[in-house]
């Protein structure tokens, strides 16, 4: 039996209407969309006082290990890595105004991982997902699509901040913006023509054009390094005793709420696009995906980085045809090899991946047709879920506004019995979280 047949059988590729080559292409696409984190995450953690060179190696290894677990065990086409939002919270609040050292902060991350794990093995996380009405689940997918598109437009310089209007059209005469638009239209045309590798072609073509035009410079010196990263400065440095000495309640609550609902939102959105969500809203293998996430958080704290979370950019791989864990395994292997090719990985600029994010946002927006907007008690919470994700730049916040408005409107209109007890509990938790900000 060939390797391709073994992979097909183990990952059930054919059963999910995919092919081995398509899964591998999707995995590479996800990697190209996520690889920026190799540079962004360590930079933020360095601001928290952590040794940057050591963190680079840890971030890559954590991403490889947990993404591999997500692919082999949970069999989801999802990349898992230290989260951007959580890292910013860790670097600029936990290790800043909150007064934690980075070692104590890692202790808090580990404790939050234990909490995630307990919520998962006790099936509470699964109960929370099952308690979410189908209309809100679809709204989450659409909201994430809007959020992804916003990130792409921002990264490509198509939209910029404005003191008067908050956002405005960027300078489209700038080379980076023009290259973003080139990549957007090229990729869109290739996808309309059903070119399977359209996203990778778009990324590579845009990067190459940027190099030719002098917008992106090739790395100086050696492009390949066979030296393994030093990890001694971060592994096992967490300080549980010091973390416990601080007021952990608000920190752990925030870490738990943000990661729980960020992950839930991403996984629900991608599961829907992969066909893992049944008609009644139940999602296949979601418990394994959650356990993988909680293990990743605990291991992150032990090794010396922030909470591991499912990445939105995985949607690019799903859009490229990824439907099984083989996509995640491919992404994981790409990150492993990236240890030796960091100078080459750094060539791929934001304007080359931004078009993919914009297109993925459009693809996820298609789910809006399934929401019952004719019913105001559904339309308003759905609308709040969708708009608050991009407007607050936070998936969990969109989740919160959707949950809370859904519960309040149903109670106020005498339809309280259509809301599950878990919905009320979650809504109350979100209200507490909002008040603690």
Can you give me a brief rundown of this structure?
With 437 residues, the protein is mainly α. The chain is 67% helix and 3% strand.
Main sheet, how many strands, which sense, barrel?
A: 2 strands, antiparallel
**Distinct helical segment count:** 20
Q: What is the total tally of β strands?
A: 4
Distance between the termini: 57 Å
Question: How big a fraction of the residues is strand?
Answer: under 5%
Helix content: 55-70%
Strand order of the largest sheet: 1-4
What is the mean pLDDT? 85
Class derived from helix and strand content? mainly alpha
**What is the helix/strand order?**
HHHHEHHHHEEHHHHHEHHHHHHH
Uncertain ranges: none
- Specify the oligomeric state: single chain
Radius of gyration: 21 Å
Taken from the alpha-carbon principal axes, the silhouette is globular
Keywords, separated by commas or semicolons:
437 residues, mainly alpha, two-stranded antiparallel sheet, 20 helices, 4 strands, globular
Structural features, described:
- The strands form two sheets. Strands 1-4 form a two-stranded antiparallel sheet. A two-stranded antiparallel ribbon has the order 2-3.
- It contains 20 helices and four strands.
- Helix 10 (198-212) runs antiparallel to helix 17 and helix 12 crosses helix 19 (395-412).
- The protein is globular and about 65 Å long.
- It has 437 residues and is mainly α.
- The chain has helices spanning 3-11, 20-34, 37-47, 52-74, 84-94, 102-121, 124-131, 134-155, 175-192, 198-212, 240-245, 248-274, 286-303, 314-319, 325-338, 342-345, 350-365, 376-392, 395-412, 421-435; strands at residues 80-82, 159-162, 166-169, 308-310.
